[in-house]
Amino acid sequence: MTSKKVIELFYDVVSPYSWLGFEVMCRYRQVWNIELKLRPAFLGGIMHGSGNKPPGLVPKKFLYMAKDLNRLAGYFGVPLQTPSDPFEAMFNKGSLSAMRFVTAVQEREKDGDKQVEQVCRELWKRIWSDDKDITEPGSLSEAAMKAGLSDSEIKEALKLSTTKEIKDKLKRVTQEALDHGAFGFPLLVCHVNGKPEMFFGSDRFELMAHCIGEKWLGPQPGKSAAKL
Question: Where does the signal peptide begin and end (predicted)?
């Protein structure tokens, strides 16, 4: 069997398009010959470091995004719903504390990344399905509890998330994304034959599959395979 192709996924739970990319890549773990590496990072740092302007700050883009996400939710099979006040959720509250918490969960997890995967999914559900907060310790605890973490694991992760070690790690991963050329999320970096190839967005999977020598079966490969 050929060695697995490494794919790094840089993302932030404040980004709905990151959720789409995240779910697709988690599904394709079982379909493609890949090793998926989850790289939680801070979208605010990406925007600042790249000089990009979020689509939510451009009125025409913002209106399009709301319609676009509604269509994509059904296509991708992800329960996306725009928050009642997306500007408040995405820009005023942001995701710094959430991404530090995710980074802390990942730092603690020694065997695989199942916990960080589930915690991220629950945080996305809170902000992009249930219109709930993801910034307060109680909100993070509730998401982690639904993800299957114990009370002691949650307390440890919350404590760890405020340390310099975790803050520096999140900065470092965010800078790695910038070094790859990031200007938004999701960012996928495929390592093939020793060369990194960068893909931005949740609509480049077919091209990415072609470049890494795999077959694209749509955003829900289980359903596609059943039809075949």
Answer: none
